[in-house]
Amino acid sequence: MVKLKLNKELLSRLNLKTLQNASIQCSSNSIFVRLMPLPNTIIAGAPKSGSSSLYWWLSSHPEVCASKTKETHFFDDSINSRFNSSANVMNHGLERYLPYFDHCAINAKVIMEATPIYIYQKNALKHLSGFEQKPKIVFILREPSVRAHSQFRFNKYRLGNIPLDKTYVDYLKETSSTESDPLQRGEYITYIDQWIEAFGEDGIYVLQLEKVFKNRVEELKNLAEFLGIEPSFYDEFDFVKRNETRKMRSTKLHRLGLQLQPLVPQWLQEKILIPLYLKLNSTAMPPVSEADKKMILEYKSRFAESNKILAERFPDNIDLALWE
Predict the structure, then answer these.
(1) Beta strands at 110-114 and 64-66: parallel, antiparallel or unpaired
(2) DSSP alpha helices (H): ranges in 71-208?
(3) Is the pTM of this model over 0.85?
(4) I need a labelling partner for 203 at 20 to 30 A (CA). Which of 36, 135, 189, 276 fits?
(5) pLDDT in tens, 228-272
(6) Which domains does the chain have, with CATH numbers?
């Protein structure tokens, strides 16, 4: 952050856009403006497609400053007591968003957050594209049918907001044609086209999860070039997988842990707390049933056309053979 002491003449030269990321304090004859950075990179989707791993891999880069909380949910379309009730664009100004980044140097090459639900959020599209300097938008995408089922299992076993006796069939029926329909959300290009319109093709970068796992080094180096940071950092990087879905023994304890996570330094989480926590409060996921496996395969054909258009938009980034 940068602190400036302004007199009336200097203040008159500033416009509101200049002050959109500033904290202002006044005294009897002086005005102090503390400039704080806004993110210039957003990992905006998609849920259950590797955004947690990507966030931690990027945040490890010395030229990257990541938000204190991976998912701020500040620009969500709704208010959720767990995620964003104390800081959201509907009830608050950017002064509630800036503290997520107040530890970052204002001239840091990359300042980022990662809220993968943004891909579907109208508020995120509207407000992020309204920044004076539009951030770069990164999407990491997973085969849509597999992603939909992964979302179901994550909600059921990790978050505990789906009854354990509810089947995948019932879940799809219940969510069909709603805003949270996991199959509709797999029509990625429907949403990404709106982001391209708002940010331009040059402002959008798409990663394919399966391609990343096939060659992590090459894919992260390509992304680093897009972001303008040193690609060679990833030549010898230890790619630890993050947020792999495991069944929580206590979902209440897990929710408490998520609330406390922003208060704990990242290195302490990585090296000690997360491995210990998962050992104490998680167990292996139940195997995917044969019925669910069959459904995953059957639903793949639903996405053939939208996947084809996506690959045409991003021919160097999407390999449809990996989604067959």
Answers:
(1) parallel
(2) 122-128, 144-153, 168-175, 188-199
(3) no
(4) 36
(5) 999 999 999 999 776 565 555 666 666 666 666 666 665 566 667
(6) 2-35 (no CATH), 41-245+285-323 (3.40.50.300)
